[in-house]
Amino acid sequence: MSAVADVAASHASRLTVGAKAALIIALVGALCLALEPVVPWLGAWPKTWVLPMTDWVGTALTWLLGWIKPVARLFSDIMVYPMDWANSALNATPWPMVIGLVTALGWYLGGLSMAALGFFGLGLVLASGYWHEGMNTLALVAVSVPVALVIGGGIGILANEVPRVKGAVQAVLDIMQTVPTFAYLTPLLLLFGFGPVVGLIASAIYAAPPMARNVMLGLERVEAEIKEAAIMSGGSRMQQLFQVEIPSASRQIMVGFNQCLMAALSMVIIAAVIGGFNDIGWEVLLTMRKAQFGPSLLAGMVIVIFAVVIDRMSAVLATERKRYDLRVVWAVLAFAVAFTVLSWSSLPGASEVAMLDGVADSMDRGLTRFTQANGMALEALKNNTLFYILLPLRIGLDQAVLPFTWGFIWTPAMSAMVFGLGGALGLLLAWRGNVTGGIVVLIAFGMIETGVTNLPWPFVLTGAAALGYVAGGRRLAILVVVLLCTILFSGLWDRALLSLYLCGASVFACAVVGGAIGVASAIWTPVWRVVRPICDMLQTIPLFVFLIPVLMLFQIGEFSAFLAICAYAIVPMIRYTRHGLVDTPEEMMEAAISSGATEWQILRDVRAPYAAPTILLGLNQTILYAFSMLVIAALIGTTGLGQSIYLALGQADVGLGISAGAAMAILALIADRLVQGFAEERRKALGL
């Protein structure tokens, strides 16, 4: 017996940390499955154990908001004036003057190509018939961005000047960027009331964190020699900061300005939900609700045009120092003024120019014909994906396999076969030396049979803790368990698992498809030439616009939400995969080539391992993108935390909105920390 024990101990000692963690997860899962018929609370958290945390949060916030409301309403009344001024200025200015001004600015920043972008971009906005709505949107951005710049810049400077608060500031910024925007719209409604100003404030809150982060980063990167020279010159601290350090960090700060602009613009449709403002976001919502997909897509493209023009011009302002001939700028402005004056009597109003109304109607008719001609194929694609992939992943094979979908009913014997197949594949992998992979395969088969939403809570907690321990040690494991327990005790566990299921399915699809596209883009340059502009376009499209094409083809439902999330979240996976593979050091490539390795061997054994940390960071961004889109997708048929947040907004339920938003932020934060931990571990293994 002692000899057998010694052998078992020696085998256990040879197991890696990952293998031990996977083994613990598998044992806990098996124990839960075995004991669930006897101890039912292992499968579902008893309702009697739920704490009224949502009510507590709602009561506390209602009391706090009651104290702040007078000041908030005063601020709201003040902000009405710049909003009205900006609206009046942009709508009263003749459209040739606005187009000329943007064209001249484009020339000054980027030459002929940027001037052409501004001219044709604004020309398309004019032709769309949404000129006045577009100007109202720009007015919202023009007022919200300075507010965000002041708030974000102040926070960044505070964190730089008071190191003790830097950790707290970073934590607050993490929370602001992970809590879904819909979650904090409810308290904003209670504070500021219904109207355009609350949309403006929501945009400013959402746009402030990128500015704060870039100010912090820029000030951190100011070289020590520059700081020492400022000190030696005898300037006060304020002089050192504003005359030396901030100018030295200007390039990074301008990157923050670019991101701030894009964040504010991406909020225009969400702001329209609570603003009731006659802007382009409201037009998108209105036409979507009426199922007028042609006008809806046309209005969405106006936002895309604004996003592309603002992104390109602000990016050039942030990164390029070269400026073009001012004489051309004055000539363009003079031509715009002369054209406006000479054609004043015959100049059509902006709303009369609408030349693309027929295009929108043709798109609607074409879509109707397309769906009628291909309705069966589209319906088959949707149903096959739902019944054979998404539904089994959600509720498990034992509940998803039914006679009307699969043609037969699931039996306990089939469950035993699934577990047996998983065990056989796991043993095969373990026998070939991959013990961790073998146990993970067994766990995956068990999850497919059970379903993500039916996983026992002890299994989920143990799995998350084990992953946290492998990725970041004991502290991360404890943090993960504590955060998940807050969701468990709040009564939002079932909805959190629903969100986790859809987000996980979308991230997996993005990882497979986006990773493959990234690899192809890294290997073949022509592929990247095609993929790059598509990625650029997808990254500038505001979130709501992703819903329009999927609704056009597949109507409301979980499959449409799945596609919208994938379309938004796939870009980081493509970009980071390609970047990691292309960035392989030349000396490593030369060594592999000189050793006689084939291109496939170089990709598999050299480039892919070196790119692993970068690819993991891309996966991290994909997860965060998917979570941010999850709430928007709740508008077209998803369940879970996103639906709870949206319902809380309609019911003005502050407690539910904040609690569900915090639960989603917790899931995103945990995923972020786990992936970052694995990426850091991989980076250390490569000696980076």
UniProtKB/TrEMBL annotation:
Transmembrane domains' residue ranges: 21-43, 114-131, 138-159, 182-207, 260-277, 297-316, 328-347, 408-431, 438-456, 476-493, 500-524, 544-571, 623-648, 654-675
Domain ABC transmembrane type-1: 134-314, 496-675
Record carries keyword Disulfide bond: no
Pfam family, one: BPD_transp_1
Keyword set, alphabetical order: Cell membrane, Membrane, Transmembrane, Transmembrane helix, Transport
Membrane-topology descriptor: Multi-pass membrane protein
Entry-linked Gene3D superfamilies: MetI-like
InterPro entries in alphabetical order: MetI-like (IPR000515), MetI-like_sf (IPR035906)
Location(s) in or outside the cell: Cell membrane
CDD domains: TM_PBP2
Family assignment from sequence similarity: Belongs to the binding-protein-dependent transport system permease family.
Name this protein carries in UniProt: ABC transporter permease subunit
Species: Ruegeria marisflavi
Organism placement in taxonomy: Bacteria, Pseudomonadati, Pseudomonadota, Alphaproteobacteria, Rhodobacterales
